[in-house]
């Protein structure tokens, strides 16, 4: 429906006023025709969220020339019902009918909706407990020859090894500390 026709319809619907009282709201709802001049333009504002957006733009009510407050929600609902066959869709109602294209998902392939995933193993096998494993006995490790302080860099170890990088580092630092430079 053209915005002007819809505004005339609303003016004669007991709300009173003149066409210009309602025309800005109808023009706002149909302004998406600038991008796409066919019915899909309605997907952008002809839904329940579009009504809420219109209230944000125009306020909750407008005062017509007869001095009567008319809810913006009512104006939008009448417009949308007229354009959508007596039905006010949601955003989801519109989006549900969009055909997925590869560019919509940044080039990833979109697979059609499939059946729910089935488990790899049958359910009864997933729920049955596993058989008990044999108890493993720990392998005994021999004690180090130098006792519990066996690390080569430990100062309590009487047999300090000098062939490790850590030991060489200690030797270099020790010589620098003594003032050999």
Shape assignment: elongated
Sequence of strands across the biggest β-sheet: 1-2
Q: List the domain count as a whole number.
A: 2
Low-confidence stretches: none
The total beta strand count reads: 2
The percentage of residues in β strands lies in: under 5%
Helix and strand content put the structural class at: mainly alpha
Largest sheet features: 2 strands, antiparallel
Q: How many separate helices?
A: 7
**Average pLDDT rating:** 73
Question: Helical percent range?
Answer: 25-40%
Summarize this structure as a short list of keywords or feature phrases.
181 residues; mainly alpha; 2 domains; two-stranded antiparallel ribbon; 2 strands; elongated
3D architecture notes:
The chain has 181 residues and is mainly alpha-helical. The chain has two domains: 3-98; 150-181, no CATH class. It is 39% helix and 3% strand. The protein has a two-stranded antiparallel ribbon with strand order 1-2. Strand 1 and strand 2 form a beta hairpin. Helix 2 packs across helix 4 (72-83). The longest helix is centred in the first third of the chain and has 13 residues, at 3-15. The radius of gyration is 40 Å and the shape is elongated. The mean pLDDT is 73.
Describe the structure in brief:
The chain is mostly helical.
Secondary structure elements and pairings:
Blueprint: H1 3-15, H2 19-30, H3 48-58, E1 61-63, E2 69-71, H4 72-83, H5 91-95, H6 123-127, H7 165-177
Antiparallel strand pairs: 1-2
């Amino acid at each position: 429906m053209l915005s002007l026709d819809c505004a005339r319809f609303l003016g004669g619907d007991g709300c009173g006023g003149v066409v210009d009282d309602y025309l800005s709201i109808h023009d706002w709802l149909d302004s998406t025709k600038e991008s796409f001049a066919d019915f899909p333009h309605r997907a952008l504002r002809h839904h329940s969220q579009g009504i809420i957006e219109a209230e944000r733009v125009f306020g909750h009510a407008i005062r017509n020339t007869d001095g009567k407050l008319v809810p913006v929600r009512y104006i939008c609902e009448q417009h949308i019902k007229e354009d959508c066959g007596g039905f006010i869709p949601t955003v989801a109602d519109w989006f549900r009918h969009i055909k997925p294209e590869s560019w919509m998902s940044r080039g990833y392939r979109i697979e059609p909706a499939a059946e729910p995933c089935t488990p790899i193993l049958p359910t009864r096998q997933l729920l049955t407990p596993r058989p008990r494993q044999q108890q493993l006995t720990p392998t005994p490790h021999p004690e180090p020859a130098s006792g519990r302080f066996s690390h080569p860099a430990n100062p309590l170890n009487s047999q300090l090894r000098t062939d490790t990088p850590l030991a060489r580092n200690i030797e270099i630092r020790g010589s620098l500390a003594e003032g050999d430079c």
